[in-house]
Structures are given as structure tokens and as C-alpha cells.
Amino acid sequence: MVGLIGLYGSVAAVVVFGENIDVLDKSLHRKKSHSESSSGAVSTASATSVLPPLEDRFGRAFDYVRIAVTEKCNLRCTYCMPEEGVDFPDQNAVLTGPEIQRTVETLAKMGVRKVRFTGGEPLVRKDIIEIVTNTANTPGVKAVHLTTNGLLFPKYAEDLLKAGLTGVNISLDSLDEEKFESITRRPGLDKVLESIQCALDVGFKTVKVNVVLMRGFNEDELHDFCEMTKDQRITVRFIEFMPFDAHQMWETGEHFASAANLVDQIEKFYPGIKTASGTRTEHHIFQAPGYEGKIAVIPAFTRSLCGNCSRIRVTSDGQIRNCLYSDDEFDLKALLRKDGCTEEDVVGVFRKAFDEKHRDGFEAKKKSTEKKVNVADIGKGRTSMTQIGG
Fold first, then answer.
1. Fewer CB within a 10 Å sphere, N or C end of the chain?
2. In this predicted structure, what is the pLDDT of residue 47?
């Protein structure tokens, strides 16, 4: 799945928190208009009005949405999904392309400028190119990104670029073939490495590698991953292990490596390393002297980045989640499928969700615990990251 799937990436997996917008001129890839077709393409010509921005009670504005387009994945990463897999929702339970587009159009009017598609593995969805195209053509949207485990990426890379995709995150948790298969329960290291090079060769402006660092497993590869930035204009992002897994890897406590510890090690590797510019998610970001790329550390569990949160999360089955650590969900899908659903209705459910957002992930977790919800089972029966989504 993506580096922790979308958190951790796609589902090889990485959950990446609110990012700044990295704008790429998409004029070469966009069509001037998009008329509705039998294939499900949606017109965006009318999506020009502006609504008050989406804000929470703490004054934070939300300009970034992560939409999981599927729970399905062609990997079975140990921290993301049990080996036997999970019960995937039937096709009718997943948001359709037009429903995704209606959501994007409404959010764009409310100030959302960046959209990321996650999963599961988003490239297993057959209409993903159409979804990206419609999103890229939405007035107000400035950046469209995708998180993938890389196995299918070379097949779709050029079409994704032409569709208007501006950035890609590729999940990779080990450079050792044996360890790669141990964590993903599938072969494919060569294909993932090929995908990283493919993204650069095709011409994506933003190419990132998501790595879930786990003590006792791949922490000894920290330097090797950092060295990937020497001659490649990529950002290698180390993400703290998260307490979301279906079979309680987290409960042992043996795999957690803190962001602070990772930063200390990186600074020792590269004396004189300088801080660099990055996204709000990339709480610690560096560039080694003379290196092409950047190195980032994301405190996904220690949560020092919550104060800058700017993200909205929508699950593949159409639930709005205002915080990864909260058990609260708001049913967008049922609303979209209700006869007579208006734009005002859609705006209303998003405003309600973010009016109830907690100050940070610690408070959200505490509230879930008070409701006697096991954090490992967070999400009303969602017991793996592939079900929670990016």
C-alpha cells in the first residue's frame, strides 16, 4: 500500500499531513473546458462562484483535501492491512467519479487549492485518469497530487501528467529486496525504484518518496535513503510509525522511532546540513550540502504539526474525517445520493465537520478514548489504514 497509505502514502503507504500548495503551471495539460460525457466526465464550467472559506473554531483554514478513491490495494503492508486482507466495500459503496468531482468543485469554492488522491492504491481504480482530469480542470484547484505504491505507476505516468497531475508521492519502506517483501508481503522493489525514476524522467515537478521508519526493521537504512537525494531532485520523507494497524503491530511498542531521534541521526550524517523549504507536513526538512534533493521528517504520531493542520480527509466510502485521530465521521455519500441535494447541503456537512474538529490529535484521541473506542480500532470499525484512507 502506499508508505502508511496515504498517511503513510497510498497504501504501501504514508499519511501525509496538511501540505502547502506546490503550484505547477498546468496550462499545457489542461483543456479549456470539460463537457459531460457518457464516460462520466463532469462539466466544471459553472464552478466559478466563491463561498466563505472552510475554517474551524480555532481559526484554521482548510485548503487541502485528501480523497481516498478506493480501499483496494495490490500490496499487503504489515502496518496497513492484515495478510488476509480486509472486507472491501462493494462498488456501490464507493464514491463515484461524478460524486468525487462534485465534492472537489464545492470545496474549491470554499478555498481548497490542493487535492490529493490516495487509497488503498489509487491506480487500481479504472477511472483514475478521468478523475484527475476533471479535478485538474476545476476552477480554483492549483495542485493535484497522488500517493502510490509505485507498482502500476510506470503504466500510467504519462497519462497522469497529461491529465494535470502535478506531483506524486511513492511509498517505499526498504531498499533491500528481502525486507521489502517482508513488509509488503509481495515482490516489487525493482518496480517501485523504476517508478521513482519514471516520475523524474516523465517530468513531474514534485516527486517524493514516503518511508515509514520502524525501529528494528528499516532504521538501519536511514542513511541509504538519505543518499537517494544526492543526485536526484526528490524529497525523501521519513514518517513516524502510526498506531493504526489491524493486527496490533503498534501495541508491542518495539517499532516506533521518534521524529526527534531521526532528526538527530540525520544531523550527524551530514555536518553543516541546512534547513530547507517544504510543506506544512514536512515539519523538519533539510538539504545536505551539494545534494540535489531534500530530506524531511514528519512527526505523524508525536503530532507537533497539528497546529498548522490544513487538511480535509474523505474516505473512499464517502465519510468526512476532520482528524486522523478522531472517531467522528460525517456522511457525505448519503447526502450526495439524496434526492434534491444542493450545494448548500454539501457545504453544510463540511462546515459541521470542521466546527467539531478538535484542537489537535491528542485531544481527538482523548475524546475517542472517553467514548471507549480503542484507538487501534479508530473509525467505526475501520481497523486498518487502508480503510481509514489517506
1. N
2. 45
Q: What does the buried/exposed string (b/e) look like for 109-145 if buried means 16 or more CB atoms within 10 Å of the residue's CB?
A: bbbbbbbbbbbbbbbbbebbbbbbbbbbbbebbbbbb
pLDDT at 110: 97
* Nearest partner of 34 among 118, 110, 126, 138, judged by Cα: 138
- Cβ atoms 387, 71 nearer than 8 A: yes
Q: How far apart are CA 125 and CA 265, in angstroms?
A: 39
Q: What is the pLDDT of residues 87-101, one digit of tens each?
A: 666 789 999 999 999
- By the 8 A CB rule, do 153 and 123 touch? yes
pLDDT band at 150 (very low <50, low <70, confident <90, very high): very high
Number of separate helices (H) and strands (E) present in the chain:
11, 15
Angle of helix 177-184 relative to helix 189-202, nearest 10 degrees?
Answer: 100
Query: If you classify domain 2-388 with CATH, what class do you get?
Result: alpha beta
Q: How many of the other CB atoms lie within 10 Å of CB of 253?
A: 9
What's the confidence (pLDDT) of residue 266?
97
What pLDDT does residue 250 have? Answer: 43
- Per-residue model confidence (pLDDT) at position 28: 34
Cα(293)–Cα(319) distance, integer angstroms: 36
Which set of grid coordinates corresponds to residue 285?
526538512
Residue 237's nearest CA partner among 217, 266, 215 is: 266
- CA dist 294 and 228 (Å) reads 9
E strand spans, the chain: 2-3, 7-8, 12-15, 64-68, 114-118, 143-148, 167-171, 206-213, 235-240, 274-275, 284-287, 294-298, 311-314, 319-321, 330-331
Cα angle value 99/326/249 (rounded, 5°): 105
Question: If you search the block for the grid coordinates 462498488, which residue do you land on?
Answer: 91
> What is the b/e burial string over 42-80, where b = at least 16 CB atoms within 10 angstroms of the residue's CB?
bebeebeeeeeebbbeeebebbbbbbbbbbbbbbbbbbb
pLDDT classification of 345: cutoffs 50, 70, 90: very high
Q: Are strands 206-213 and 284-287 parallel, antiparallel or unpaired?
A: unpaired
Residues 266-312 have pLDDT tens digits of 999 999 999 998 887 787 999 999 999 999 998 876 655 566 788 89
Q: pLDDT at position 305, please?
A: 54
Over the stretch 161-172, which tens digit does the pLDDT of each residue have? Answer: 999 999 999 999
Q: Residue 267: left (phi > 0), alpha (psi -120 to 50), or beta?
A: alpha
